[in-house]
């Protein structure tokens, strides 16, 4: 039931601190400050290549995981949307792990890709939210998310729970490969344990984002920009907005703007920039300046430091807590979800049952 919330989507957005904590509790041992995975009967440390396959929001979680696994564990990762993967005759090397991410565990294209990889002799791991699902049953390694039932068609809490599991997986792979020592692992655990509190801090901006939504609701097109592991968040922000508010939105890697999409920029196109402060921040700021020089209206989502440095001249800013790169995408999911939600409310669309969409896509 919805309780005091207007929509399931809103309820599910606000459940995230609880369900992320619930999910992380089975992947973290607080006493030993270590990351742990369920039992498996294959050698995870011996995996030399990972192939990630998923659809929609789950695919964006996979894109974030690619950044994390390659950065922390130095294992090469391929990623595809399931509908493309199945038909392109992918090269699957012996000793590879295929990783499927799905809230429902039933998505037809993802399931077909899983069966293909299994037939090719790959080891199969799945991150799913429904432990009784077909994908869960057919996997060699089940990595459950504990988001609870997700009713809103637009995925929210399943996404942040997927990211939590994938962060733990990336850290565990890094440990097994000798790329992360005990101290670094303990630090990662500390940051992950703090994630629910940071999610709460992000949720505190709900009213402010509801006000801001009136600036976005009249737009015909909206762009989202991000770099590194926050690039998939830009894609996710755009997907959420188009799904429930029917506003055309696109996510781009910040640096890719000048290769085409900048032609779209004028006073009528809001640009949402996701940019935690850090080594890539300066580069994103110069991309923002390119947008502003063409009359574009920028909404900057960053931390206090980033906003102090680059907030001036933006039509709005949303201040996120300062976080470790391993949890930034988890925390930055909240403002993009809330923005899409409030814009949809401002437009009066059916938030929980958007037109043309189904919760589980069990046909090709
Ligand atoms: C987006 C959304 C869809 C799903 C996609 C995959 O809000 O809900 O894009 O993420 O259909 O579904 P699962 O994760 O169940 O395989």
From TrEMBL:
Reaction equation(s) it catalyzes: D-fructose 6-phosphate + L-glutamine = D-glucosamine 6-phosphate + L-glutamate
Keyword terms, alphabetized: Aminotransferase, Cytoplasm, Glutamine amidotransferase, Repeat, Transferase
EC code: 2.6.1.16
Keyword Transferase set for record: yes
One GO MF term: glutamine-fructose-6-phosphate transaminase (isomerizing) activity
Active site: 359 (for fru-6p isomerization activity)
Subunit architecture: Homodimer.
Protein name, as recorded: Glutamine--fructose-6-phosphate aminotransferase [isomerizing]
Species assigned in the record: Novosphingobium mangrovi (ex Hu et al. 2023)
Gene that encodes it: glmS
Residues shown, of full length: 244 to 607 of 607
């Amino acid at each position: 039931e919805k309780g005091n919330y207007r929509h399931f989507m809103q309820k599910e957005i606000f459940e995230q601190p609880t369900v992320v904590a619930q999910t992380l509790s089975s992947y973290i041992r607080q006493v030993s400050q270590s990351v742990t995975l369920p039992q498996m009967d294959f050698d995870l440390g011996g995996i030399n290549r990972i192939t990630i396959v998923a659809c929609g929001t789950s695919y964006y979680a996979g894109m974030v995981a690619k950044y994390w696994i390659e950065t922390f564990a130095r294992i090469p990762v391929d990623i595809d949307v399931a509908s493309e993967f199945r038909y392109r005759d992918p090269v699957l090397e012996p000793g590879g792990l295929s990783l499927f991410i799905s809230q429902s565990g039933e998505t037809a294209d993802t399931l077909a890709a899983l069966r293909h990889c299994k037939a090719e002799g790959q080891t199969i791991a799945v991150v799913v939210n429904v432990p009784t699902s077909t994908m869960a049953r057919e996997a060699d390694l089940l990595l459950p998310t504990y988001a609870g039932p997700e009713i809103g068609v637009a995925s929210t809490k399943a996404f942040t729970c997927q990211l939590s599991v994938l962060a733990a997986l990336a850290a565990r792979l890094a440990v097994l490969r000798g790329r992360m020592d005990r101290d670094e692992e303990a630090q990662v655990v500390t940051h992950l344990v703090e994630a629910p509190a940071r999610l709460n801090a992000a949720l505190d901006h709900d009213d402010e984002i509801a006000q801001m939504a009136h600036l976005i609701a009249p737009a015909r097109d909206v762009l989202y920009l991000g770099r590194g592991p926050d690039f998939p968040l830009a894609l996710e922000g755009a997907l959420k907005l188009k799904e429930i508010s029917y506003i055309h939105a696109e996510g781009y890697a910040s640096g890719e703007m000048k290769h085409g999409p900048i032609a779209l920029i004028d006073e009528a196109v809001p640009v949402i920039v996701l940019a935690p402060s850090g080594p890539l921040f300066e580069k994103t700021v110069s991309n923002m300046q390119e947008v502003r020089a063409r009359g574009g209206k920028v909404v900057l989502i960053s931390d206090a430091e980033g906003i102090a440095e680059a907030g001036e001249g933006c039509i709005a800013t949303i201040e996120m807590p300062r976080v470790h790169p391993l949890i930034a995408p988890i925390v930055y999911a909240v403002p993009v979800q809330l923005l899409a939600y409030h814009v949809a409310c401002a437009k009066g669309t059916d938030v929980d049952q958007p037109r043309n969409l189904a919760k589980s896509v069990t046909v090709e």
